[in-house]
UniProtKB/TrEMBL annotation:
<protein>
    <submittedName>
        <fullName>Protein kinase</fullName>
    </submittedName>
</protein>
<keyword id="KW-0547">Nucleotide-binding</keyword>
<dbReference type="InterPro" id="IPR017441">
    <property type="entry name" value="Protein_kinase_ATP_BS"/>
</dbReference>
<keyword id="KW-0812">Transmembrane</keyword>
<keyword id="KW-0808">Transferase</keyword>
<keyword id="KW-0067">ATP-binding</keyword>
<keyword id="KW-0472">Membrane</keyword>
<feature type="domain" description="Protein kinase">
    <location>
        <begin position="17"/>
        <end position="268"/>
    </location>
</feature>
<feature type="binding site">
    <location>
        <position position="45"/>
    </location>
    <ligand>
        <name>ATP</name>
    </ligand>
</feature>
<dbReference type="InterPro" id="IPR011009">
    <property type="entry name" value="Kinase-like_dom_sf"/>
</dbReference>
<feature type="compositionally biased region" description="Basic and acidic residues">
    <location>
        <begin position="291"/>
        <end position="312"/>
    </location>
</feature>
<dbReference type="InterPro" id="IPR000719">
    <property type="entry name" value="Prot_kinase_dom"/>
</dbReference>
<dbReference type="InterPro" id="IPR008271">
    <property type="entry name" value="Ser/Thr_kinase_AS"/>
</dbReference>
<feature type="region of interest" description="Disordered">
    <location>
        <begin position="270"/>
        <end position="368"/>
    </location>
</feature>
<keyword id="KW-0418">Kinase</keyword>
<keyword id="KW-1133">Transmembrane helix</keyword>
<dbReference type="Pfam" id="PF00069">
    <property type="entry name" value="Pkinase"/>
</dbReference>
Length: 422
């Protein structure tokens, strides 16, 4: 985790802890690296001065401390001390050395399937403990997961509430990070453990591909995709894609439980470690090509109000083994015309499809064109055969006529004997 020097306005001592470095800052406060007199290092969060007098932020801070106290196990940073009544409320947790999942992926790119499955299995086991405590994290994402030498740790329960709480702080304002929010959070519905499962699936997809499964864009664009569009898992390894796809189901009831996730990811990690090939993915759509950028601002709100339709695959070459629908032949056209006569709307609204043409500008050959060429070929062959037969018959007739003709008569002068000369 990156550390920065203390600034002039930063405190040097908070409670029983002396502060040494800045670890980061968020919407609620600043996180410092501190230590007590025994040398125990802690990550200490202090609420911002401008927010210390805001009762809403004090309430959120109190919920974070309450959530941290209720969770047991090694999946999170252990709570060490807290003071919610101070002028600037603060609390300290055990310091977790190691980079965040976000920083590691940003530096090294997407992780191998075996490593993603191992991290995911440990995180899923940690979420089991979180949910058993009656807490929903609500903002699970790569930057809130620290990769310590003893395994991943979940941090920052700043917006974690009890199960069943609403996801809105103000009307129309969702709490969380776009791209990792569940659809029910965007709609303002009650959160459940399945809400964290959705964010868990998006986090694993990011770890494997170094990108969100819903691409990049403004907050409005990302929230629209989360609610209305399917995730892009084309770059996710085959061994992980089906499970991640189930985590990203729009309906919370269709997502697996954290216990199921822990078991299945452990199996995947073991199979990848043995080098066993991943089973063929089934039922996972692949999104090819870049995502079209959606409009923003007022146009984005109007776009989000439009009825959503299932995305269809773009036109392209027909895969091997698939049959392309054939056009009606000449013999079927009267029936098609009769069908149009029974449906007047088909006559007044012609098909919007434009004819496909080759790069040379010619219409590609279809079934009708091939049939015409076949007929022309047969006609030429038959004509040539007929001509050959006629010529053969004429030759035979001439030969037969020559055999039955009378032989020519040779005319010679009569032989006479000259009379003797007396």
């Amino acid at each position: 985790m990156a550390m920065m020097r203390l600034r002039r306005e930063d405190p040097r001592v908070v409670g029983a802890f002396r502060l040494h470095r800045r670890l980061g800052a968020g919407g609620m406060g600043v996180v410092y690296l501190g230590a007590d007199k025994r040398g125990q290092r802690v990550a200490l969060k202090v609420i911002r001065p401008e927010l210390a007098e805001d009762q809403e932020f004090r309430s959120r801070f109190a919920r974070e401390v309450s959530a941290a106290r209720r969770i047991r196990g090694g999946c999170t940073a252990r709570l060490v001390a807290a003071d919610l009544e101070a002028e600037r409320p603060w609390f300290a947790t055990q310091y977790v050395p190691g980079p965040s999942l976000h920083d590691k992926v940003a530096e090294h790119g997407g992780l191998p399937a075996a490593e993603v499955a191992t991290i995911g299995a440990a995180l899923a086991e940690g979420l089991v403990a979180v949910h058993e405590a009656g807490v929903v994290h609500r903002d699970l994402k790569p930057s809130n997961i620290l990769l310590s030498p003893k395994g991943p740790r979940i941090i920052d329960f700043g917006i974690a509430w009890a199960t069943g709480a609403s996801t809105l702080t103000h009307v129309g304002t969702a709490v969380g990070s776009p791209g990792f929010l569940a659809p029910e959070q965007v709609r303002g519905a009650a959160v459940t453990p399945a809400t964290d499962v959705f964010a868990f699936g998006a986090t694993l997809a990011y770890a494997a591909t170094a990108d969100s499964p819903f691409g990049q864009g403004s907050s409005e664009v990302m929230l629209y995709r989360v609610v209305h569009e399917e995730p892009d898992l084309g770059a996710v390894p085959d061994s992980l894609a089906p499970l991640i796809y189930q985590c990203l189901a729009k309906d919370p009831e269709n997502r697996p439980s954290t216990v199921q996730l822990s078991e299945r990811l452990s199996e995947i990690a073991a199979r990848e470690a043995r080098g066993i090939g991943a089973p063929r993915r089934e039922g996972v759509p692949r999104t090819a090509g870049p995502r079209p950028e959606r409009p923003t601002g007022q146009r984005a709100r109007e776009y989000a109000q439009q009825p959503t339709e299932r995305r269809t695959a773009p036109p392209g070459p027909t895969p091997a083994g698939a049959r392309r629908p054939e056009r009606p032949s000449q013999a079927r056209r009267p029936a098609a015309a009769q069908d149009r006569a029974g449906h007047p709307e088909r006559q007044t609204h012609p098909s919007p499809r434009t004819p496909v043409r080759t790069p040379t500008g010619r219409r590609p050959a279809g079934p009708s064109n091939r049939l015409m060429r076949q007929r022309l070929f047969v006609f030429v062959i038959v004509t040539l055969l007929a001509a050959v037969c006629i010529a053969a018959l004429q030759g035979c007739h001439r030969f037969t006529s020559g055999l039955h003709a009378p032989a020519p008569v040779s005319v010679t002068a009569p032989h006479t004997t000259a009379p003797p000369v007396g």
